[in-house]
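Sample A.
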Amino acid sequence: MELELERLNVTNETSFDTSTLYAVTVPLFIRIVAAVVSLFSTTSNILVVLTVIRYQILHSRTHWYIVNWCLCNVFITASLPYMFDSLGLDLVANGNILCIWDENVFNFLTWNHIFVAVIIIDWYISTFCNQRRCAVRCRNSFKIIISLIWAMLIILLITTSSLCFSRKSFLLPFVAFEISYLCIFILLLAIFILRCVKLKTSSIIVEKNKLELKLAFSYFITWLPNILVEVFSIVLRQHLSYASISILLFTSMLVGYSHANVLLIVLYITDRNFKVCLNSMFHIKTNDDNKNNIGNKQDLVEILDQQ
């Protein structure tokens, strides 16, 4: 995360120094937007987590993957006001704090990519492979997969923080973020091609649900502007000032951080069970059901009421 840093005491060193204080300057309107994005995105993450945990009908491996994805993301969205100094305070920190904060944010973002990859791979295997056999294997292994993902993240966070305290800041978290995003693009492209081939060559396969595909694609799209700004920053510097590039970078990052809202909307529109459960949690009744499915919905609501 490139922040505009200004040293409070003069030094000739260019790397983070633990004895040096840095002031982070962020434009006012970016602070306001960051606060709004943080509020809505954190609320969306929490709503998804609470809805899935509360209603047993949503206790599928796909929804548990989504819950852990939201938990991984909520650390970032909840910390946006501090990250962008939305409270209007003078954000002053030494090199250690900035190193830990900056690199661990990228660690969490990279692990968001990993959850996206796991979700889309699980969807493809369950849909286009031997569905009965794969469904059993995926159902038996998803808890182990989630545990391994969190264990690796915790180890990486501890390692990164230790290296920062040892004055060994490194670019691996940022590089991992960029590479993992590229891997998601390749994965989505490969799965889309394989999906088209499977649907064209087999009449047995029935694609029941595209929820996972829509979530993965929406995540890729929301982070695409930030990746493009990062990749073409060298070219942009020849035509734009550093302040303009920083604003573009901040804005594109906030678009990516707002994906939690997109996730909630996609879940609400695409996943009928999630929609009914969320409405039930807030005691909302909808009248947009036709006569063919209203009976099934009433059965579902009765099940939810019993919980």
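Sample B.
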Amino acid sequence: MRGALVLSLASAGTIVVAQPSSAACAPEKPRFTLSGAKASYRPTNIASDFIQGPGRITYSKTKTAEASWSGSVGIGGDIGPIVAKMTASLEGSYTRGWSKASTWSYSLDIARGKTQRIRMYHASKKVKVTKKTFNTGRCTWRTAYSNKTVDVPKRQNVNVWKRENL
């Protein structure tokens, strides 16, 4: 019977008490599995104002560009181990948040009838994550969540400029 104290009488009249073990198995760290990795780009905070075409946007500003990870609800507390797993198992180096201070410059022609701006996007990797946790009482792994998507910035300074419509 699990969890009960067992009392037995020894031959000399001594009572022997056997305590139940607190856990059947040693604890294990959660395991993360990555799948479906593909190149992506995260929007940064560097963007021009919108203009109506025909015209030309010329953007030049000294500012710290920033891009952060994004992902499915419920994985926020796991982003550190996920980023570590991505860096260890995928090509490149990844980070929760990328930033770089610089002077950013770009020009873009806007066609007649369009209202657009330009925004800098930073290279990232989008993956699906499955997390398994270990139940020490039953000595089994269980799936905490599966196929949750994260998009994590690369540590390297790799950026593209994209048009955005109003």
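B remarks: Residues 1-21 have pLDDT under 50 and may be disordered. The radius of gyration is 27 Å.
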